[in-house]
Specification:
Layout (H helix, E strand, L loop, with lengths): L21 E8 L5 H12 L16 H6 L6 E9 L2 E9 L7 H9 L3 E7 L6 H12 L3 E7 L8 H12 L7 E2 L8 H11 L12 E10 L3 E10 L1 E2 L4 E4 L5 E3 L2 E5 L3 E3 L3 E2 L3 E5 L13 E4 L18 E7 L5 H14 L4 E7 L3 E8 L2 H14 L4 E3 L6 E5 L4 E4 L10 E16 L3 H10 L3 E7 L4 E9 H4 L3 H8 L5 E11 L2 E8 L2 E2 L5 E4 H18 L7 E7 L2 E8 L15 H21 L6 H8 L10
Parallel strand pairs: 1-3, 1-4, 4-5, 5-6
Antiparallel strand pairs: 2-3, 7-8, 7-16, 8-15, 9-14, 10-11, 10-16, 12-13, 12-15, 17-19, 17-20, 18-19, 21-22, 21-23, 23-25, 23-26, 24-25, 27-28, 27-29, 27-30, 30-31
Length: 619
């Protein structure tokens, strides 16, 4: 979020609001259920945005968010609301709905006392709805059930009110029916928030503790840290300390977001706002850390938030090798605004210098790649996504392998792969097709329950490697787009995995290698050898394209040699003359094959290694 310069700020806000008049809540839902649209109507109704400044998806700041209609970054905003003559302050956090950005939701939940559980009246409860609900219940938040899009012709609010009430244990009439588009029911919802969400319970005179729930980098002001003050108070020019890192800073500015930054004279227990300390590294303001003052320091940090762990790894390489320094600078800058992105340098024989990057999922990978190309004008190759395996060698040494080139040579005692717990919601007629798909992907069913006669909730344990490629596309195609998926990493298992090497003219090309299950090694080998046979141009000698597991060849294709018609000048005569010319050509090709090298064009590498990512709007 861009921070205004002091000259652009509106009037200075008073130091604090009584905790009894504060309500902190977030909006959680499945993707495309209307969170950002509902937030727009709340901003309009409470008057914090003038009509002339209003635009759709006001809180979505990035171009990609607005184009795709998805929220990537959580956004906090402070809005005023009066009930029975008493003025209240509502701190609202609009959260993403896609499974890849679940960590944004978890940090938002830690900063709130209540949550609006939003469900589309035309689509009903979906997988991410359940995942977010369970997270909110674990955080002991007050849940307000809301049915959105009641103005749609296909809306069935009464039907889904029954489902929603059965899920959270309330009466169907307790579900508020709203339309984020027209504004119907939004006033009633704001009144319910004031009535049902509890006021924050922090102590104003206790040692200061504030939870960092987000931090972004501003080009001119440095790191902007978003905090929820749990206990105590924060004032400008105070010395503050981050409990986990021990870093100390002076508070240069403190304020609230309403919805643009407004400088204030302080924040007290229960309030949400931003801090600017002049720090130049987002790592110094880690999400989940506790901020305290040196004057009255807290001894124990706030609990709850864990750093996100990357689940999917992919190599990013510049198509033009001279762009490598520019890619490094671009990743450094992007990392300032996205603490979940990890990367380290990597070198590929085929693609040159690049970076091995860790992402939270396929959409996260696609968004980062698109931002690098757009914002930094880079042309990139993203290699096929992979996961991290634990390989235990014969002498019991553990090696973490996120790239097939890191796979140890020789005998392997055991390979351990990460598992995910997947929740799939689907209409009941597609249960058989989904079970078949999950069994093909080595899944184990945990349980199955009916939310209603028409909707089924399936829980599967699946290897992460099986769902990071085309699992979601297959799920959607087999259910005509009606199924929804949510997953989170949970546990590991020993698996019969092998490394498949691809050989061109009997030489291993490391870039095409892959780690796959033994049962799928043959199909991968056949697919890759056939693909390369079509992509690599013919040479003057025959090229065998082979797939091998260890020393055993499991698949082969042959790129036929270019033939020169050496018999064109023979208009007749003895057959022995023709045979002599053919033998001479054969000897030349044999010698060429022994000394010749196969040149693989860059286009072939891009086509064979790049994977087509599913778009975020599908989910």
């Amino acid at each position: 979020m861009p921070i205004s310069t002091p000259a652009e700020l509106k009037e200075i806000q008073p130091a604090s609001t009584p905790a009894a008049q504060i309500r902190n809540f977030c909006i959680i839902a499945h993707i495309d259920h209307g969170k950002s649209t509902l937030a727009d109507r709340m901003l309009q109704l409470t008057g914090v945005i003038a009509e002339r400044d209003m635009r759709a998806q006001y809180l979505d700041r990035m171009d990609i968010e607005r184009e795709r209609g998805i929220t990537i970054k959580s956004q906090a905003v402070r809005i005023p609301w009066t009930v029975d003559g008493t003025p209240y302050v509502l701190n609202m956090i609009d959260t993403p709905g896609h499974v890849d950005f679940a960590y944004e939701v978890s940090r938002s939940l830690a900063a709130c006392e209540g949550a609006i559980l939003l469900v589309d009246s035309a689509q009903g409860i979906e997988a991410q709805t359940l995942a977010n609900l369970y997270q909110a219940l674990e955080n002991d938040l007050t849940i307000i059930p809301v049915l959105n899009k009641i103005d749609l012709p296909a809306a069935e609010p009464d039907k889904y009110a029954e489902e929603l009430s059965a899920l959270i244990g309330c009466e169907p009439e307790d579900c508020i029916k709203v339309s984020g588009k027209t504004g119907v029911g939004v006033e009633e919802l704001l009144n319910r928030i004031v009535k049902e969400v509890p006021a924050p319970q922090g102590k104003k005179d206790a040692p200061t503790r504030a939870l960092i729930f987000d931090s972004v980098y501003d080009t001119y002001r440095g790191v902007v840290t978003y905090v929820r003050v749990v206990d105590g108070q924060l004032r400008p020019r105070e010395q503050v300390q981050m409990l986990s890192t021990g870093e100390t800073h002076e508070l240069q500015e403190i304020g609230i977001i309403s919805p643009e930054p407004l400088s204030s004279t302080g924040l007290s227990a229960g309030e949400v706002g931003y801090l600017i300390t002049g720090a130049k590294d987002v790592a110094q303001s880690r999400v989940g850390d506790t901020v305290t003052t040196l004057r009255n320091p807290a001894r124990t940090p706030l609990s709850g938030y864990a750093n996100p762990q990357p689940m999917v790894f992919s190599g990013l390489y510049p198509i033009d090798g001279s762009d490598y320094p520019a890619l490094r600078d671009a990743l450094d800058k992007l990392r300032l605004n996205d603490a979940s992105l990890t990367y380290e340098p990597e070198n590929s024989v085929a693609l040159g210098f690049g970076y091995r990057c860790g992402f939270l999922g396929l959409l996260h990978l696609e968004i980062i790649t698109e931002r690098l190309e757009r914002e930094f004008n880079l042309d990139l190759i993203a290699t096929a996504p992979s996961v991290t395996y634990q390989v235990i060698t014969e002498n019991r040494e553990k090696i973490a392998v996120s790239n097939p080139s890191e796979f140890p040579e020789g005998k392997v005692h055991e390979i351990v792969e990460p598992l995910v717990e997947a929740t799939i919601l689907t209409p009941s007629e597609y249960v058989g097709a989904i079970m078949e798909l999950c069994q093909q992907r080595r899944g184990e069913m945990q349980n199955m329950s009916y939310l209603s006669p028409e909707r089924v909730e399936l829980h599967y344990s699946l290897p992460l490697a099986e769902i990071v490629t085309d699992f979601f596309d297959q799920l959607k195609s087999r259910t005509k787009g009606y199924a929804s998926l949510d997953y989170h990493q949970k546990g590991e298992q020993s698996a019969d995995l092998v490394k498949v090497n691809i050989l061109l003219n009997h030489e291993v090309v490391d870039a095409f290698s892959a780690i796959v299950h033994r049962d799928k090694a043959y199909s991968y080998g056949v697919e890759m050898t056939e693909k390369l046979r079509q992509l690599i141009p013919r040479q003057n000698f025959e090229i065998p394209v082979q797939a091998a597991v260890g020393a055993r060849i499991i698949a082969r294709s042959t790129i036929k040699a270019l033939r020169k018609d050496v018999l064109a000048k023979c208009y007749g005569g003895d057959v022995s003359r023709k045979r002599k010319l053919l033998e001479k050509q054969k000897e030349g090709k044999k010698r060429m094959k022994a000394v010749g090298r196969v040149e693989v064009p860059q286009e072939a590498f891009i086509a064979a290694l790049s994977s087509e990512m599913p778009t975020g709007k599908k989910k």
